[in-house]
Fold each of these.
Amino acid sequence: MITYALGRGLYVALTNRANTTPLFNTRGPGFKITSTQFEPLPEGIEPETQQVLAAVGSALALTLGPAKYDSIVFAGFGEPTLRLGSLLEVCQGLKAGVAKDIPLRLSTNGLGNVLHGRDLIPELAASGIMGVTVALNTGLYGSQRLLRGTCAHLYIYICICTGLALFTPNCLRT
């Protein structure tokens, strides 16, 4: 499934590929996203730009239009920046069409700059992405409690170091 609703966000999955341990594998047996709509993309399938634009358009039409959603979030099972070209194309298409008034966000592991060997912030901002969430997943079962607990200040520092603090000002300038 390309799109799914979670809270007031419309989530978009571009890939199941990941360059770190995916969230589902870090939370232990039986972890599920609370949205009953979420399903990973079929194995080996990565939707083309036009398929994603059509899926978002359909989701918006089925839910009484853009007013239902506070944002469109690129997330899913895999890491969206592994499909950077598609991500940028989809964002540009959404901003030019059905989602021109809905903020776009990216949920990432924060390794896009390393993966692509350059600062992605200007490209992401220019495509219309207005916010980013850096997911701090760990492959050690049970350590999510540690991430959310006594060591939270350390992980906030890591978020800042991976670009979270730099992303928002760059987006707001465009």
Note: The chain has one domain: 3-173.
Amino acid sequence: MISHEQKQVRSRTYYHRNQEAILDWIKCLKQEANNLSFEEKYIRGRKLGKGKFSTVFQCQNKETQEVVAVKQIHKPSLTDREKEFLREEIQIIKLISHPNIVKMRESYETDKYMYIIMDQATGGELFEHIKMYELEEREISLIMYQLVEAIQYL
């Protein structure tokens, strides 16, 4: 018997002769329970950027073929306090939903890494765009409006 929140739940054992069918069934259960590992769900692509504690990769969802950005954070580089702060920050970021803020999809954690899966923003860095092109006042005001709108939301 398995105890779950003061309720008694009977355990069940299932059998199947075909090992491939068993593995497929387990994969489906893990997927429905959102219990797949990062490596089981995503194909790692090219590196998009690197920071002091993390690297951002372009990845592809194996099932949907959707392309996302994944921030891979090296946990041994963080203090215990930084790890806890990051976990809390992830919980807050999951709640954010605004058209001018990149959406976080999900997160994974292993002994060595934390993975933050986000929508991939295309078009490059805003700072690089400003340096390369001479922007008109109208374009600058639109950019500023979007930035202020996002900050106001937060």
Note: DSSP finds five helices and seven strands in the chain.
Amino acid sequence: MLVRSRPTPARSRRWCLPALAAGALLVSALAAAAQPQPAATTDGPVGTWMVEKGKAMVRVVDCGGQYWGVVAWEKTPGTDSNNPDPALKTRSTLGMPVLLGMHGSGQGKWTGHIYNAEDGQTYEGHISLAGANALRVEGCVLGIMCGGETWSRSAPTAAVAQADRHAAVRSTTGSGRAHRSVAEEPPAQVCSAIGRR
């Protein structure tokens, strides 16, 4: 005859503690999975970004593994009058590259150069995603004195709408068709025009 012994408190505890720990771990994992997560982006910093003070929008495109940012819209159109190169002093700031050859330097971070039209200088700099809709842009002098701002993601169509609202006359290609704004151009066209801007 088989006699079962009653579980003793010590024997029950040996079995219960691991089960309780496993259950608590499972509940914690499910709770963490249910929390809203920021949208992951596989495009890195690609997109249209409103600068911190709202004076311009910059379109960032991937040009063969390097990211370049060009002015897609500006509140007050201007020229690059502070550029030290006399040949560039009269170029329009619309379409001008400001993020230059940014390449990957870590998880969610890219390093390259930043052109500042306000003083005509190019600085070492880096950009990093500060969430799905925020881009931290920082430039450095001598690699030690750094400053920057955070740009907000904007819909590409917002740059086109802003450009249409602020343009009294839209320039033409010579065939009577209106030029596309930088915000409307295909990325390959933006990349091929970087050296001419």
Note: Residues 47-196 form a domain with the Lipocalin fold (CATH 2.40.128.520).
